[in-house]
Design goal:
Blueprint: E1 6-10, E2 13-17, H1 19-38, H2 48-59, H3 68-85, E3 88-90
Parallel strand pairs: 1-3
Antiparallel strand pairs: 1-2
Helix pairs in contact: 1-2, 1-3, 2-3
Amino acid sequence: MIDDSEVVIGNGYTSYSGPDAVNLARAISVRAGLRLAKAGLNIRGVSKSGLLRIASEYTGKQYKRGEYDKAREDLKLWIETMALALPIKDERTGK
């Protein structure tokens, strides 16, 4: 099976196409959610422990309650690695 995942950056938008690119976007969102959870904010649609479970899907590590910083650091490494593996097209035009 061919994976045609890619990230396209244009004027005012970023497009995540394909399963790997969508997982990258999801991981980026979860990482931001973990920062909000650490600050004590509730996120609609997912619990704080749910965010840690999602982070575990990507990192393969289990997190205890309150280990938001550890999960964020592990996700950061996963995000950076995936971003290097995916083709990123910059289609922005100059002014």
